[in-house]
Each structure stands twice: as structure tokens, then as C-alpha cells.
Amino acid sequence: MREAIRRHGSALREVLIDARRSPKLEALARFAADQAVPLVRDVSRAELDQLSRGVAHQGVAALAPDLELVSFDALLAEPTALILALDSLQDPQNFGAVVRSAVALGGATILWGEHASAPLTPATFRASAGAIEHARLCRVPSLHEALGALSANGVQVIGLDATAPTKLAECALTSPTALVLGGEGEGLSRAVRRTCTTLAALGGLASIDSLNASVAAGIALYEALRQRSKSGI
To answer: 72-230: which CATH architecture?
Structure first.
């Protein structure tokens, strides 16, 4: 919640806080006022329960603007694009944790198919630990078609595959790049695999499948950023 307040400030309609305030909630109320939130209001626990629809709310809620998504056309136009594509990542906890890794490691754009991955739910927001408020997100109708369009526009599409003979560190990641992370259990789907220009393994690791999705994403993005930093990008 603090990140939502930090990100939106006066654009929030109001922040609702449990009337039985704890010291932590008191501090949050002061922070909201400092960030020019127009209304900070005490409400009952029952009202918060109703607004959250069963999701744990920790005594606070906010009425915020809709989450802004990056358009795919804008993504195509980026000359130094770094994209993390999620192929059928179903667990909202994993989705949120991947978003957190992407924001922490330079703000790569998250790309996913709207019908094949976990939706943006309160669980996703919570798992991101506030990072989703700072994330670049692009949702498309079909991931494999989007990856095909990226490839046709000069973006290299690298699928992360533990069995690939090529190591990710051997790939030049300074040009526009989309790193593709497969879903839990199944890995890269056949359609998505066909759109990849290269398959690469995370070097030195026995299996990508044995890693938490956000850890695999973090390792891949760190390698991309390491190369780009050395090249001054």
C-alpha cells in the first residue's frame, strides 16, 4: 500500500484505514497525508472485508486509478527494448514475484498473453510487494503472435530452456531482446518455442525447472543488464 501511495499520491481518490488503528496504520495515515492523498478515512473492519472480497487487506485499502499498461505498438518502437515474456505462468504468486524481480533489475517490460497466464489479481499485487505500481506491463491477446511480431521487427527472442546447448551468457543481449520464461511444470509451449530465435540455458544450473520463476527471471535479467552496463546502454 505504501508503494501505491508513493506512486499515485493525489491521484488516489481515498485511503481507507481500519478505525482500530495500530502504530503502523497511524504511520501510514501520516504518509498518505504527506503525499497529498485527498481523503484518508477511518472505516470498520467489516467494510474493509467487504471491499477486499476475501483478500487479506492488513487493515488498509485505497481507491486507485486503473493500472496503466504499455501498448504493444510502443514496445515495438523501443530501440533498446528489454522484455521478459511469460509463457503460461499460472500462479499469481509467481507472476507477482517475477514483476518484483523485473522492477528491481532495471525495469524490463513484462509481456504476457491475456488468456494463457495468471490475471492481474490482488494476489499478484500482493506478491509483487508494491513493485507492480512501478512496473512496465504489456498484455497481448496472443503471446506467440506478439513474439513473432517482435522477431520480425528485429528483436531477438530467447527462450530459456535448461536443455539448450547455448548458455545465456554466450548470447549478445545488448540489442533489443525478449527473454521468454516458460510456465510452471510445462516450460515453453510448442507455439512459443517456434517463435524463439534462440534457446539458451542459465549457465551453471542443473535445471531452470528447479528454480522459482522469479529467481530464474532475476538471473536472466541480471545477465542482460550486466552486458548492457558494460556496453554503456
So the answer is: 3-Layer(aba) Sandwich (3.40)
